[in-house]
Specification:
The chain has 427 residues and is α/β, with parallel strands linked by helices. 28% of the residues lie in helices and 30% in strands. The protein has twelve helices and 24 strands. The strands form four sheets. The chain has a ten-stranded mixed beta sheet with strand order 12-11-13-14-23-22-21-18-19-24. It is globular, with a radius of gyration of 22 Å.
């Protein structure tokens, strides 16, 4: 492996959520791809949904970079690998540039990635320059990639912003306001990419708004990580992963890690399949089961198949929405009924943030894995707790165990502890 790999790269940040980072990053990725360049996109933070949009723009799986949940070594490995295989790397930030500890600014500074600012210019002009000046000045060590003004009303509006920028803040371009390019949202964020019928057309149209003079990001050298040895703990095992509109929050890095551990991966749909596929273990990730209650209720063959797997001791990992679907009821409607407990989706957020779950191990040792929680659900159950997540503000989400089923609101990040991740899928 090379010691360093050079690639054009920048991190797309903003003063806050809602500035248009996802569509702007997708438009940039598509614009560079249209030039014949190889483009790879990352999502900073643990979000699932934005990455689905970026994957449409690039045609490549999107990985998450998060110094808290994933760790610095994981980010270094992913960035170096992407730099070897691509001409341009784009990172979509999370929330505001400095929000969170660690923040996306920390990622940019740690890896020397220039920061581009996406500023919603609706209802302001020259003040955009002041916002950019303040954001960059707050941490002078950050490299400045430049400004993209979003939601501008005209060429004249864009020129006012461009001319007001200090000389040391580059102008990258503007995207004119177009209501048809906005992305619909719901309680967990944007709609899923597959739910937006014309998503590819929207991204292509947004890319055209950036114009032909879009400059390339600065070149960055990415250092190779130390080689990670992953034992084949799942050699010869087949893991069946639920994948459909109800169960879709799956980190690509988790799938890669399972394969690196030796497992074969297959997919099935608890919504549409009438038979549970044969496998050595099953994984029901999070998603939106609450939007598909009638289909889940009616698929008695899937319920019976999952129950039979549990009865024979086949390992099942159920995360967030996967756990709610295995309960007795969800929003008052019967679901698969493998776990004692009832769930309700609440009007207010019930859990948010990076956590680390500590599991008991042999002797006095414990073992910890990175995870994330973001949900509106409440799950009332008497299931025994075998592990406890911990966040910045104390105790977090419990991890439940019944027979061969491990369940939690947590979305685990398997590469943060490969050996522990393998245990979820072993009897």
């Amino acid at each position: 492996m090379q010691k360093t790999s050079r690639c054009h790269a920048m991190l797309m940040a903003a003063p806050a959520s809602g500035q248009g980072k996802t569509m702007t990053t997708a438009a940039l990725a598509r614009a560079y791809k249209n030039r014949g360049l190889r483009v790879h996109a990352f999502k900073c933070g643990p979000d699932f949904i934005d990455g689905m949009i970026l994957q449409v723009a690039t045609g490549k799986p999107v990985y998450n970079l998060d110094l808290g949940m994933c760790g610095e070594a994981d980010a270094q490995r992913l960035l170096h690998q992407a730099a070897q295989e691509n001409d341009v790397i784009l990172l979509e930030g999370v929330m505001g540039l400095y929000d969170g500890t660690p923040s996306c600014a920390d990622i940019a500074e740690r890896f020397g990635i220039p920061v581009a600012l996406v500023l919603n210019a609706k209802a302001m002009a020259q003040t955009c320059a002041a916002v950019a000046y303040g954001l960059y000045g707050f941490r002078p060590a950050l490299k400045r990639a430049g400004v993209i003004a979003n939601q501008v009303g005209s060429d004249g509006h864009a020129n006012m912003i461009k001319e007001a920028l200090p000389a040391d803040i580059p102008w990258l371009g503007a995207m004119k306001h177009d209501a048809q390019l906005s992305l619909p949202e719901r309680h967990l964020g944007l709609h899923l990419a597959q739910e937006i019928a014309d998503i590819d057309l929207r991204i292509e149209a947004a890319a055209q708004l950036l114009g032909p003079d879009l400059p390339l990001p600065p070149a960055v050298d990415f250092t190779a990580p130390e080689k990670q040895d992953i034992p084949p703990l799942l050699q010869g095992k087949t893991i069946a992963v639920a994948k459909d509109a109800a169960f879709c929050f799956t980190y690509q890095a988790n799938l890669d890690l399972l394969q690196a551990l030796g497992a074969d991966i297959s997919f099935f749909s608890p919504l549409h399949d009438t038979q549970l596929p044969a496998a050595d273990a099953y994984w029901l990730p999070g998603g939106y089961p609450e939007l598909h209650l009638q289909q889940l209720k009616d698929n008695t063959a899937m319920r019976d198949g999952l129950q039979a797997a549990a009865d024979t001791g086949t390992p099942i990992l159920a995360e967030c929405g996967g756990m709610l679907a295995l309960g007795e009821t969800l929003n008052g409607q019967p679901v698969f009924g493998l776990l004692p407990g009832s769930a309700e989706i609440q009007p207010k957020l019930q859990g948010l943030g990076t956590q680390h779950a500590t599991f008991p191990a042999a002797g006095a040792d414990t073992t910890t894995i990175g995870a994330h929680t973001f949900h509106y659900g409440r799950f009332e159950t008497n299931l025994p707790v075998i592990a406890q997540g911990k966040g910045k503000y104390g105790a977090g989400e419990p991890v439940y165990k019944q027979g061969s089923i491990t369940a939690s609101f947590l979305h685990f990040y398997f590469p943060s502890n490969p050996a522990l991740a393998a245990q979820f899928f072993l009897p």
